[in-house]
Structure formats: structure tokens, C-alpha cells
Amino acid sequence: MSSKAIPEGRNAAPIPPYSEISSKQYNKITLKRKALKLLENHVATLSLVLFIVGLGWLLVLPHDEYSHDTYISENALLPGQTNNFFGENEVNVARHYAQVLESLRTNPIKEKASFVERELRSFGYITATQDFEIPLSYNKVVNGTNAFGILKAPRSDNTEAMVLTASWDSQEANQDNINGVSMLLSLAKFLKKFTFWSKDIVVVIADKNTAGIQAWLDAYHGVPKHDDEQIFVRSGAIQGALNLDFPGTGSYSSLGIFFEGLNGQLPNLDLINTVVQICRYEGISVTLHKPASKLDIYAPRSYTKSLHTMLTTMKYQASCHPSGVHGLFHRYKIDAISLHGVSGSGRFGFQYQKIGILIESTLRSINNLLEHFHQSFFFYLLPDASRYVSIALYIPPVICIAVGLLLISLKLWFSFDDSVAEVELVEDVNHEGKDVKSIKTSVAYTQHSIPLQTSIIVIGLSILGCVLLFSLNLLIVHPITEEISLPLSGIFAFGFPLFISSAVRQRAEFTPYNLQVLRCFALAWTAVTLVGLAALNYSFAVFMGILVFLPYALIQPRSHVLARALQFILTTAISPPSLLLLCSFVYGQGVVELYEYLKYDFVVLFGWFLPLVYLVYWPINVTYSVLAWTSNKETQPSQ
């Protein structure tokens, strides 16, 4: 029995006992090895092809060939099949409330909340107000007062409910939601007239947009946070919610539907389809989000328009920030959307009456439900209000990107010949009319010694990410100013990876073999992370994969100083501090203001964006920074 030479300094594996295999098995093993060898020689090309295929796949999804027409899955909804009663009298009531709210615009929030509560009580609702206070920093708190009322359904045991919400401030910058609140009050008075409701109707006027709705939802479900006042007026399980956002007092050219929730969650597609179908019956122009320009409202569907709509959805999902206050309902398994009036006029212009008919008809459809929305999709992308892409079609791009990184990792792994053992393969052959045994030697298996330092680096950087995340409490107590934000971002972008690299090099023994093992682990870590995130927040995963694939696939330990410096600059350019500076420049916001926005999502709304950055993205990025800045020459730890 023969054996290959064992690399010096490594222990040989024990040679397995003599074994026999058939000729068929031997040929099968040989074929597999040839295929693996061929694959190993073309891994770089194959990985690049997978990345291009994944990117191309994502870009063709908005095309009509890869999307489908939407449809109503729940037959009980019957959208637009009811007689509507919202008429001119209700329009006059809405106009009256718009004038009253205009006069109350500058009044304290408690006065406005008291006014709403009195009006709802006069309609016959069970009413209450809720004060809330949420600390953001040592000298900054978010506080306000919510007003809400509950209309008990006359034909049920009050175990289910529907919610109508509106905030005092519109999601349009520097605009009040006057038409939204006035329509909500008019509808509240109108809905009380009928006895066909089988679900309670809950009306909520929220202060401070997402902060107010978050405080109300937590208190409603018995999980009050911070210093929120508990509420004792409750209804049943909420089946659906509509948020009204109609800024100003004018008319609207189209209806924009916002549906993205907190942390990338989406409502059941049937709720969106119901609203879209009712809009068609009523002649209301409907779009997803807000049109980029007035021309887009009436422009026919095109690939460019569909791509823009799909990427807008993915942007909201990847940011983990809801596109409206409706997005906070999803964490409680409540399907909700926001109806936003796009200001303007035109042949499809509308105001109070069509808004009232739309909401009445939608509530009638939800009222028909016998159980939660469940028949349609919860995972989808929408290139248009009438087209959808299912998860089976949009998940492959991120899988292709992850597999490309994983193949590079596997190539590195199988190139480690720490110790090699061989086995004799015995084959029966016929030689000169006699049966004889032909004995060949072949590699049986290899053993790899995994350096302990590699595991310590990976685990240590993950723990460090936890420390940085929870250090946010220091920023809450001691907030930073705009003047020191830029230097601080630069220090974190360049200094932090350099410090970690220097500390690791002083404490760990970095041989070329150890560095390759670390690179192998980093690539596999990135690939597994992308696949795992795809199930939780697809858009975050695919954007992360597109951003990091080429840099991480190319970075490896090098001996030349210039090459290492270029690699380090590349990893720094895609580090969180650098990306924060880039977003600050693109959106025209200060670094501190932008970070306060992210911190608000984490502290108040319990968003995942900062945890994903600190616990997932940044540790991986720093690992590649260590690889980029470390020479592939053998080094010894400092004594």
C-alpha cells in the first residue's frame, strides 16, 4: 500500500484498512473527481456568471412575461358588489370638519384630541384618549396624545374589529392631514347609521405619526412600552386596517397605495387587490406609492415604470422602515395599508365623495370576512398595481449570488491538503485468460486542521457588533453633534478596521494557510447570511448581495503593499460609516439627522435595520478588512 507525501509539519491521517470496490464504483469515483477538478478550474468564471444571472434575473422581473395579473383569492370579499350610501350630506359634513380643523391647526395637541373625542362620543362611540412619552435622548422625547373611539357592531359578539386611522401630520413633508382627519370624522358619523356591521369599527386619530400608532397598538394589545398610558377601552381581534393620508384641503389626481410594513413585512395581497378593484369601479386612478411626476399618473404601463415601482418597494423593505403608519400593524398579524391622495387635478380628479365611497366599499368587503386574510400571498413584489411577482420567481437572484460566493469558499476548502490518506482499490481483470486482481491506490480522504484563531476572530467580531449595537444607549444619553459627526464617521470607517486588523495580527499567528481558512470562512459566512436573510427580508439580502459580491470575491491576502491598500479602501468604501456618509450626501441630510432617523426606528418602532447592520453586515465587512490589510507572508504573533 502506497501513500502520498504528507506536507511537512502536518500530521498524517491513519491509513484505512484494505478495502475492495467494484469496477463500476471505481469508474464512478474517477468520474466524480474529474468533474470536481473541472469545476475547480472554472470556479471564478462560474461564480461571475451566477452573479450576472442573478442580477439579470432581478432586472427582468418587472417584464410582463415574468409577472402575473392580480386576482381576488378570497371569494367572500366581493369588492365593489355592494350598494354605497356615502353621499352629498356626508361630503358637506367632511367640508365642515375641514374648516374646523383648519382653525385648530395651531392649537395644542390636547385640545385637538379633546375635540375629536367629543365628536366621536356625540356619534355614539365609546371614546378615550391616550397620552404617551418616548425618550430618544437625555434632552429629547417624543410625546403626544391619541384620540380614539369604538363603534360596537350590532350583529356580533364584538370579538372582531376593523380599524380606520389618520394622523394629524401627513407623510407629505410639511403638510397637515386635514382632509384625512375630516374624512375620518365624517365617515365615523356616517358608519353609525347602519346595522349590517358584523365587526366593530375602531377610529384612531394618532399624534406624531408612527410614534402615536406604535404607542396605541402596544397599549391595545396589552404590551405598553416606555411611559405610555394604558388604555382600557378595547375591542376584539383586528382583521384589517386602513390609514387615511389626504394632505391639504384640495382635490387629488390619483390614489397612491402604500403597503410596505416594518422590517419588510407585507399585508395579504387580497387587501391591496380589493382596493385596486374598487378604484377601477369608481373611476379613481390608482398607483403604488407616489408617482415620480404628474405624467406618470396617466402614462401606460412600461418596463421602466414597473422597474421603478418594484425598486421603490424593495427600497422600503430593505430600510426596514414602514412606508406609512399602517406598517406597524403587520407585526401584530393585522393586514393594513395606507391610502394616500396625490395632490392635483385632472380628468380623474376626485375629492370627498369618491374617497368616502372607496373606504365604505372597502370596509364592507372586510366586513364579509369570516376569518383573517389568508387565501392570497404574503410574499410578493409588485411592479404595478395590477401585476405581481411571486416568491418562486423573485427568490433565485439572491440564491445565485450566494451560491457564487459559496463555490469560491468550497474551492478554497477542498484545496487544503492538510493530511492525505490513500486506499487500495482492487479490481478483477482478465489477463491472458486468467482472472487476476489489479490493485490501484487512490486518495481516501483528507483531514483539515482548522486554526483556533479563525474561529475566535469570527466569534469575536460578532460579539463586538453586539457591543456596538447596545452602545446606542450612550448616544441616547450623550448625543453627538453635526460638527463632530463627519470626523467620527471617518474614524469609524478607516480607523476601526485598522485597529481591529492590528490587534488581530498582534495576537494571532497568521500563516498563509490560516489566512486562506479565514477567507474560506468569510465567504461561506456571507453566503449563508444572504440565504438566511432572504427569508426574513428579501430586499435587504439582495441589495447586500449585489453590493458585496465583487469586492468580497476579489479580496484575498496579498504581499504587495499597494494591492493591500487598494483592497482596504474597497472594503472601507462599502462599510456602514461610508455608506452613511454617502446616503447623507444623496438625500441632503446631515449625518446626525440620518442616524437619529435610524435610531428612532430601532428605539421606538423596534426596526431591524441597525441590528442587521451591527450584528450581520459590519462584522463580515471588518473580517474582509482584516483579510485585505494582512500580508500573505507568514507572520508570528507579537510577544
UniProtKB/TrEMBL annotation:
Pfam families referenced in this protein's UniProt entry, alphabetically: Gaa1
Domain of life: Eukaryota
InterPro entries for this protein: Gaa1 (IPR007246)
Alphabetically ordered keywords of this record: Membrane, Transmembrane, Transmembrane helix
Gene Ontology CC: one annotated term: GPI-anchor transamidase complex
Ranges in a coiled coil: none
One of the GO BP terms on file: attachment of GPI anchor to protein
Residue ranges of the TM segments: 43-61, 391-414, 456-477, 484-504, 524-554, 566-588, 608-629
Protein name: Gaa1-domain-containing protein
